[in-house]
Structures are given as C-alpha cells and as structure tokens.
C-alpha cells in the first residue's frame, strides 16, 4: 500500500472556508433540551458518564 504525503498548505484554504462558514451561522439554544438534559443527569448520578449521556439523548 502506498501512502502519499500531503502538506498542510494543500488543505489549509479548504479548512479556513469551512471554519468561516460554520462560525458565520447563527447559533441556536434550545432551553427545553437543556432542561431535559439537566433533569436526566440529576436522576442518573451514580451511572457511568457515557450511559448518562445516552439516556439524556
């Protein structure tokens, strides 16, 4: 298998365009989702972190 070396300069412009597009978008916050996450985290205090997150989703 042949592996090609790629310099950061080759993809820097693409990353910068993507970053600009992401940062320029309006941000939203769903209060209801935050409340549900908090409620779930309060009821699953003794469980592993990954399980708590999965149940909150």
Chart the SSEs and their pairings.
Blueprint: H1 8-24, H2 31-43, H3 49-56
Protein name: PFL domain-containing protein
InterPro entries: PFL_dom
Organism: marine sediment metagenome
What structural category arises from helix and sheet content? mainly alpha
CA-based gyration radius: 20 Å
> Major β-sheet, in short?
none
Work out the helicity level: 55-70%
Oligomer: single chain
Distance between the termini: 41 Å
User: How many structural domains are formed by the residues?
Assistant: 1
Which blocks of ≥5 consecutive residues have pLDDT under 50? none
Outline: elongated
Number of strands: 0
Query: Average pLDDT value?
Result: 90
Proportion of strand residues: under 5%
Question: Brief overview, please?
Answer:
By secondary structure, this protein is mainly α. 67% of the residues lie in helices and 0% in strands.
